[in-house]
Here is the input.
Amino acid sequence: MIQFSKNFMFFCFLLIFQSIQLFGACEIFELQLTKSDCNASKKFFVKINFRYQDVSNCFTVTGNGINYGSFEYSKLPIIIDGLDGNCLTDYEFVVKDCHNNDCHAAFHLGKVCCEANCEISEPMLDRTSCDSNRKFYAFLNFKYKNTSACFNVFVNNHLSGTYKYAQLPVKLGPFEGDCQTARLFQIVDCDKELCNTKIEMEKVCCETICKISNLKIERSPCDSDQKFYAFLTFNSQNTSDSFYIKVNGTNMGKFKYGSPSYKFGPLKADCRTKYGILIQDHIKLDCKTDTLWGPVCCDTMAEPCKLYELNVERSHCDSNGQFFVHINFQHQSTSSCFKISGNGHQYGEFKYTQLPIKLGPFNGDCKTEYEFVIADCEKPDCKLIKELGKICCDLGTEPCKLYELRYDIVKCKDPHFFTLFLNFNHQNTSDCFRVKINGNPHGTFSYNQLPVRIDSLLADCRTEYKIVIQDCKETPCALEKSIGAVCCDNMNKECKIRDVQLERTECDADNQFYVFLKVSAENTSECFKVRGNGQLYGEFKYANSPIKLGPFKGDCQTNYEFVIIDCLKDECKFEKLLGKVCCDQNCEINNLKVERTPCNSDNTFYAVLNFNYTGTSECFKVLGNGKNYGLFRYSQLPLKIGPLPADCNTPYEFVVFDCHANECKADVELGKVCCDSIDHELFNYEMARTDCDPDSMFKLNIKFQYRHVSDSFHLYINGHPGGTFAYAKLPITTSPLKADCHTIYTIKIVDQKDTSINLTRYLERPCCKPNIEPCKIFEVKASPLNCTGPGQYSLQLDFKYSGVTNKYFEVFDGSGPIGFYPFANLPITIFDFKKSGRTFDFVKICENDNARCCSVIEFRSIECLEPGTSKFNIKNVLINNRSKSILLFSDTEFPKDLEFEFFNMEGKSIEIKVKSLGLYELEFPLDQLSTDLYFIRIKSKEESKVYKFFHLN
Here is the structure.
């Protein structure tokens, strides 16, 4: 009986123990998966291991719809073999307990390629010069191996095109050089999306045409001699530094751009004289505008109200099929406002000072005949009328476009007349177009009639012909071209190849390069041949220019030349010399020297640059003092830059970069330049500011030396009289001036008898802000992004700044300056930052031309070796503990499958989101944590490590 009781108790104990086991928390954790190398059959195996607790006797492994079998826990680790490395299967593995489906763990391996890895690397971008439409093309090239047959190019996430690798380098565009759009070029293999790379192009500015516009004139009251002064204002862009004002052919003087208004005169107010007023840039003489003004009366009879020079422009249609209208015009003797009406609507009342104005939106319904009536508020008979007509905004279509105008001049049948054939490309047009030549209509044609023929044009060797083609309905959709004068007696020699431009690519790994050749010609056949160095490179159509030739050997010996010959006219040809190209020499620019010319009469000078060079491309660019002076060919050396103002203030510096290798550079300083000398009557000018008063006003103390002058001089500040002073009373003090940090003061001293004796200086944007901050650059962040080649990587810089007075900053590494950038572009990315070879790299950031305002940061470098030689190692991860976050940094890329766990001293898990700062840097915000000691566990598929850190809240 006693034995039975013992057995019964033992049985109950086993039953209770098994129940505890049965209802324990089954757990599978710390799943690790290791992938083998591929075998000759392009297959691989994975080794799976993990930890477990309170499980049954076996587990299953499934994934991608496949059941790999059941395994005993005691057999761990296990191997699953015979997996295909086909670059397609996105492998995943799920481990699940045999008797508890809720007890499981998963591992995502991803795609495995047992082929040689597809690689696209070292992307390079070159761009052409801007054309007349402010557009440019980009040439893209890169290295590749183990790819498919083609690749896609995305520009700012939009597909630009699909190309074969054999087409490299490829021509992309055209793109707008609008000074605003930065472009990201992404190259993606057609079949292997993971095989990709990218490269950025900074904003491109295509220089606008010099323009003087919106001319307005006001006058002063008449004096006792019935004379008055005129005050002139206008808008200008892309001009030189000064301009002329001419009235009825008489030069009223040269004036500096930048003043609010310009005073000239006195002029007669005789109620008869009309004044023809011309504004003309003093260097770009074609940049001008003129107007007819007057007559002006000084009696009590007011001049009549007048509205004139009406300009009405409409915008492109928007996505809603609507458009806006911009209205501007000139006026005189008006009230303070005007009204606009049209089509039975009153569009409102506007002040003349609001011009130009914008009206809309209007519906482009192809029905409404739009008209606009502009009338003075108090003088309704003083008005202008503009009929805009019907506007069509067809939704879902691109705007009307005419492009690539081509023409051909046929030999004269009559001794004095010739025939012209016209052709062009077009899209989204109406059904017809009109042709005007020198303003005269020459017919309306259907687009189906192209090319069209124009007969009986005078060939007098004098008439300069200008062709304008306009769509019948979309009048802004137009083309124009000037073909110059035509001579019948010279018609047999009309073929002319005017210019040939050569651009070569960088050398590839085989020390070879390509050449892009662009031909400018007129009156040719359809094609041309290219010969050179005893070879015929082929026949090409003019319409396909620029063309790509090569590859050529950069052997430092062959003197490459190219002869372009018209296909039908052998005498019509052009020779262009490229010269010797060295692919195995390092690019080097050295012995950079700068000299300056004597000063010009307007206190300007030219800088002359010269230097030695080896292993360069065909061109270089010159930068300095925040300006880009342009691209130049090495054959242009020595190079003359200018004219530059000798203002005794600008510390001139020049940095020369090779066009294709930014690391190939040199810099030189010229320093400040003054044009004063003892040869001048006024010289050794000195100017000092007084302290500011509570109203931010200050005075100037001025002194200078003089000789051969009268007894006194006039002082002008921004064109306004500032007093007359005796030379003997120098130094003098000006009246108070406002220090608003914006105004540029022009100080001019003129002898009272001989106005040719004068001196001009400038005071730029004085500030009197109380307790103004000193210049400071702080909170600098330097984040390596990705390797761009062996020993180099792209580096993102961001920082805060205060008290700066310059728009630009410079960046230096251990070897010297590596570039300067606008503060407004922060954060910036340096795409080819060179490793120093040490564990930590550093950069120095300074305000441009201010060595006292700098900041230096040292940061962990990254390994940029040949592909396949660097591997992530958890032991090399660094932790940087900040006040509100911690940063993790690796010298190689963080794996995408890396896992992180946060927990406190009690082992409680804490959820914190990770923020990626790049491929090599991660940030974890700690705003919600209290002061304590914490731990972070970093786990990869092969290893793990725990770091600890202390957080102060």
